Target: 3D-(3,5/4)-trihydroxycyclohexane-1,2-dione acylhydrolase (Decyclizing)
Amino acid sequence: MNQRIASAVNESQPASTHAAHMASGQTVRLTAAQALVRYLAAQRVACEDGSGRTEPLFGGVFAIFGHGNVAGLGEALYQWRHELPTLRAHNEQAMAHTAIAYAKAQLRRRMMAVTTSIGPGATNLVTAAALAHVNRLPILLLPGDIFVSRAPDPVLQQIEDTHDGGLSANDALKPVSRYFDRIVHPAQLLTALPRALRVLTDAALCGPVTLALPQDVQSAAWDYPASFFTPRLVSFHAPAPVQAEIDAALAQLHRAKRPLIVAGGGVLYSHASEALQSLAAARGIPVAETQAGKGALAWDDPLNVGAIGVTGSPAANALAHDADYILAIGTRLQDFTTGSNSLFQHAHVIGINANSFDAIKHDGLAVQADVRLALIALADELVNWRAEANWTAHALQLAGEWRASVDHLTHAPQDRSCLPYDADVIGAVQRSSSRSPTDDIVVCAAGTLPAELHKLWRAGQPGAYHVEYGYSCMGYEIAGGLGAKLARPDREVIVMLGDGSYLMMNSEIATSVMLGAKLIIVVLDNRGYGCINRLQQACGGAPFNNLFDDCAQGPLGAPRIDFASHARSLGAQAEHVANVAELEAAMQRARASSRTYLISIDTDPTRTTEDGGWWWEVAVPEVSSRANVREARKQYDERLAARSRREKSSGTGESDDGADSSIGSNADNDNPAQ
Model:
């Protein structure tokens, strides 16, 4: 990565001499835009290395200028460009994805802001804001807005509402923001900015913050208290455990014989991996990982039973099916984790989460607390309790068998007569590392790959697995890889994605080249949306409008896309390979390269890893003229009935063994990744 950019975005910086000079007076006259930028630049966080040094809370601001932000905020960013770097991108949604990925890679300890013009620039942020909201990740959105004065009304790109004159395009961001404010006077920043900062740094509230900035207000001046811009050390807030909730959880755990820990992203964000490993080892509790939590425990830890849920390992899902208690730690228990609420068939749930909304899910007994502090509190009180020895031994056996399966699946010799599939590619990528493959950061988001990576990627440390699957947003991958690289310039960042995601959003390849933030991009080309094509057929549908061969076409037919040539046109190095052996050799060239390097490979859209998986509820039409749909609906109704029986039996305390036996079967799985 370009060292000038790396130092600007990541390294500690001294307080501005200009800022120190301006702070000597009682007030300082600034435009609202200048005040905002100066306030952001003043926020500091302690370095993670324990040196006592500080670094900026905000690693920078991604900006695409247009009318509505170029004159006001653009001038302010230029004035403080050394304290708060401004980075240019090529797509507003993509630059927000990059900022979100930066925060994720920093485990929410540092973050970025983004600014856009009014109109399409602002509405392009909606998808990214939703992604950040779902994944509980911080980002500060600073879209330009229409004139408060309404003098030039309607201004270019303004959306006029016939029943509310106060609405603008930015109101579309309200449902996907954790905090929203429209700054209609410069003085509002005195309250809006501290509120925004609290949301961004609070474990329970964390998510996107939007401060809509009318362009006339951005440029208006006001006398601000100089103390408002004094550099300050930001603390991150998460609730300490309440003893009564810890006691209630202990009372339940002491009854547990077959417990299972489900580790979510909250384990990583609270830096609780060591506490998790210690508790699991001391008490003999197996640990399964969600998509967001993968890497919380090293892949080769004896008690790591792998991925859980719809994209889960056979080991984790078998244990989840038989567990009597689920300790859900830092997870929001979305449907891919719980198999649409069909997986935890006999278990009581104890939810440990900084966010009470997440802690109570699945009718859980809630411990609202910082995950690390809660785990330490539980460990101190559980000295006389362990999981049943047979349960722990069974978990160790299943975990070992699954690690052996992963090794086999990712090292299978390729039959040159057929195309490789995702597991073959994953194995080749990890084998290509001259160091430990766990030093790499893999980035992905949507399609088949998240399922395969969840099962097969060997994450050896927190942050090595960077997959956005809360919103499963196609197009996140390359932009997200850029954010991860800006956050961790010393690590090799490998973006793995399908051709569908690449075609949705690839412009930040050019940004990565411009910033000197080298990525390795591996494109698996199955000529269409292979994942949804399989889901379509699993629901009884005919192959239609997903793979190129099944789409409406003109006389020239579907295009043959040369991804390598396209990436070269954006400034990257690139090549297409014919097989797995060529991929391994190309990966060596990519690792040796100093600039972003793309490798494309043709893959089979029909093959997936059959091991593991679980039912996922996708509604099938009740009425259809097609026999396949009617049969799929029959199976769907049977699974709904089985889940209903499980829910009723759990309410009476009765066991309903076998009632859901078909749900976990791989023979007719609705999981699109199967």
Notes: The longest helix spans residues 627-652. DSSP finds 26 helices and 23 strands in the chain.
